[in-house]
Amino acid sequence: xxxxxxxxxxxxxxxxxxxxxxxxxxxxxxxxxxxxxxxxxxxxxxxxxxxxxxxxxxxxxxxxxxxxxxxxxxxxxxxxxxxxxxxxxxxxxxxxxxxxxxxxxxxxxxxxxxxxxxxxxxxxxxxxxxxxxxxxxxxxxxxxxxxxxxxxxxxxxxxxxxxxxxxxxxxxxxxxxxxxxxxxxxx
Amino acid sequence: xxxxxxxxxxxxxxxxxxxxxxxxxxxxxxxxxxxxxxxxxxxxxxxxxxxxxxxxxxxxxxxxxxxxxxxxxxxxxxxxxxxx
Lengths: 187, 84
Prior knowledge:
A: 187 residues, mainly alpha, Arc Repressor Mutant, subunit A, B: 84 residues, 0% strand
């Protein structure tokens, strides 16, 4: 279960050797690192897995190099980007190329989209559990109404309206109209 | 200030699907399993026969050598040695 720790607090605990904090840090940024390598750099699953493990291994090893603990996200993004480029360079048959030549077209736009997506997921984490779960299942995990209904014991006919209400709450949070704890329970 | 229409929100949520669970677990556990991992990698680099056994069948090779079956270590070795 994710806690409400800030990135800064999480990094401080990881530096102190807190295994649970490290597990949370990985969980918090796992989607982001995965998406950068697969969507931004179009790596195969195989290469993306190597990059994923290497990013977190290096992050753990070099946490003390992070100058501003609150800047964890851009630091991880940069690390992932660097390792993806290294992977593309290793796979390139031609002579060594500049980073810009190895990067797929539109990578900066994709990474900007992923930054915003992460911010939306962070806001989603502040919504009530039932909202978090149904929205994540439907959009991020691409589950059908039928699967969601079975998993959450909900009649399929109520799922669409619940998703719509939860999206409205998320939108309010993002637009600063609701405090995180204010959203109401399931209806 | 961004405007979060339903369609745009949906697109942003979809942009971050979950990473495979096994990857996450391995990354969470790996730093704490590093000692065993380093030992196995050092042995594999020094002992070609051991390395071949790891590549052919990772889990059997580890078991035969008496290593504890730590999922994070197995996953990291699988990535490193591209074993089945």
